[in-house]
User: What shape does this take?
Amino acid sequence: MTDLHFLTIAEAADLLRTRALSPVTLTEAFLRRIEQLDGKLNSHILVLADQALADAKRAEAEIAAGIYKGPLHGIPVGLKDIYNTAGIPTTGHSALFRDHVPAEDAFTVAALREAGAVITGKLSTWEFAIGGTSFDLPWPPARNPWNLSRDPSGSSSGSAAAIAAGLCLGTMGSDTGGSIRGPAAWCGIAGLKPTYGYLSRRGVLPLSFSLDHAGPMCWTSEDCALMMQVLAKHDPLDAASATVPPVDFAAALQGSLTGLRVGVVRHFFERDLATDPDVIAALETSLSVLRDLGARVGDVTLSPFSVYGDVATLISRSESYAFHQAWLRSSPELYGAYGRQRLMAGAFIAAADYVNAQRQRAKLVAEIAAVMRDVDVLVFPTARCVAREIGEDTMASGYQPFFNRAFNVTGNPGLSICNGFSADGLPLSLQIGGRPFEDALVLKVGHALERALGTRSRRPEFAC
Assistant: This one.
């Protein structure tokens, strides 16, 4: 049997369902591994060992009694520490919320528990999902398991690092400007930013209410689909939560890609932002594979990437300041330097600029919708480069490593997968976007590519 910590959710679920593997045995294996490795990785803020073991014993008893709840039953899952957990601290990786203990679970956390998932821990994040890789917070920043001197990116840093290192089988992240897909790219995992409104954000510490997305992070696209099966539920108490027909995400992975129309946003990585040659080479290999799988591939044109980035920055800084302004005035010293500076920037954005950014956003939404009448998915790299040195402040330097913000602005689903490795063994990445609420198709394309490219058999040496 494969090492338990390197199983996928799909593989572990089959073993748990047939009682070839005990949820307790599986959970104990992950708790031991966290204890062994996380002192160097710093992916966890809080390990919930006692609760996890109790939940695993409950899952074992239920499965033994013939009450099998589905593929997440007995599966160890970690939560980015902006997800509220009843009676358990949710800190946002900040001294400001060090003692914040919610009274109830976030909607998505409750959904995971109802599905029988075992919550093993609360995971590192950039402070309040914006503060960068910071060393002036109560807990150290997560590191990249492919090379501990490299950054895992953020803000869902611990969520991505824990998956890549085999410390849990699934995690929850959040994505306001790429915070699921960036860490997924640099840590070599699969990360889905679902369509805006597909997953509830109730009980998730907000950053930018019109850009925030909750989403799954896993080793494979298939595992993300299994998590979406549980998470994609309407929440009447989240004003942005959409009511859409249920989808069988796992079944939607099957079938060929023959006739799939793929649009390559080539100007993003060839003209708009200089991109490393090995990233482009990996993308071209992925396009060749898509053609071999029966897809039709052609180039499409959108607005320059900088337009999407500027709109996203104006909106996110304005909305994040609106949420944090009272604390920034009363307790600025409780923020880290990066978090404080980035949140304060919103105080200097004029209302007219925010309104005009929203008007431009509407045009960009219409632009992508028009382009996607002729193609089924859009593809381009997730990251322009491999993971950079830890603590290198790309925001302050003005260097933008990722092509992520377009899908936050428009709300379209975006999936990052690992599509190769650089000469020095660091993950490369591809981003797949789709029409609103066609997340299942995006996951199908990711699943097909992962299987054809064979990237899911390689793990970080640190973790082996």
Q: What stands out?
A: The chain has 16 helices and eleven strands.
